[in-house]
Amino acid sequence: MLRIRHEGPFVYGYNMITSIDEKEDNTMMDFGILKIKKGQIEVDKDDKERVFLLIHGEVILEWQDRKETIKRKSCFDENPWVLHLPRRLEVKITGIAEDTEICLIKTINERDFEAKLYRDKECISEERGKGTMNETSTRIVRTVFDYSNAKYSNLVLGEVIDFPGKWSSYPPHFHPQPEIYFYKFYPENGYGFCQLGEEVYKVKNNDAVKILNNLSHPQTAAPGYAMYYIWVIRHLEDNPYITPIFEPEHLWVMDKDAKIWPNK
Questions:
Q1: Distance separating the N- and C-terminal Cα atoms of the chain
Q2: CB–CB of 86/112 below 8 Å?
């Protein structure tokens, strides 16, 4: 299934959403949510490249000779903190807040690189779509790292915030590299729609979708509900993700002088 439905809250510990060993619709990534309570300790040492993205909460991170306390109240209102680790490097995570959620992503990468903590102020946050399409696709796009600043990685990572009733990942675009979207809504009973090619899926809080096989994937949030999603792309061998391919028949909407009904 390309849509992965998750009903209710996550349990404490690791909640798997996708696995690198899946036989069908394989994204080449382990993807899940690490839920941590106050005082809980998690240690991770794996033979994979790893990303720890703080969705909300507060934890202490310890790796190599470093120790950092990171905190995020709201994934809608604040930029992310992200710890990016190479294979075999151990990290210890200690819960400080009563409830913390961390998105944990892993993939195969035989390159060794320096561990990096991306601080919230380092994240590039853009308001895209502004001034076009009658503001129907104005959204916030946060890019943590991509091929331009982390060529050693096999991943590209970011977040999107859809304003209520508006679109993102628009105009429709696609790419051969596999991608995962993971959703949160404010309020939590909200919903939106994810188009994958010619199919449309209703998405709710804590759902995820796999984007594969060059499927175009525009998104929209229902009126009244803000939609947040993590997006992570897995580079292909000798074919890294650089930029999306837009469906040419819809590119005209990006023209600031485009005549859109009823202003025609």
A1: 41
A2: yes
As a whole number of angstroms, the distance between CA 63 and CA 65 comes to 6
Place of tokens 């590299």: 177
Count of domains in the chain?
1
Burial label for 235, CB within 10 Å (0-12, 13-18, 19+), is buried
Per-residue pLDDT at 256: 84
| pLDDT 10s digits, 212-237 | 999 999 999 999 999 999 999 999 99
Domain membership flag for residue 254: no
Position 137 in a domain: yes
Picking from 142, 118, 117, 101, the residue whose alpha carbon sits closest to that of residue 17 is 101
Within-domain flag for 27: yes
Q: Within a domain: residue 114?
A: yes
Q: Residue 263: its pLDDT value, please?
A: 87
b/e per residue 25-50 (b: at least 16 CB within 10 A): eebbbbbbbbbbeeebebebeeebbb
Note the pLDDT tens digit of each residue in 23-35: 999 999 999 999 9
pLDDT higher than 80, residue 1:
no
State the residue range of the domain holding 103.
Answer: 9-241
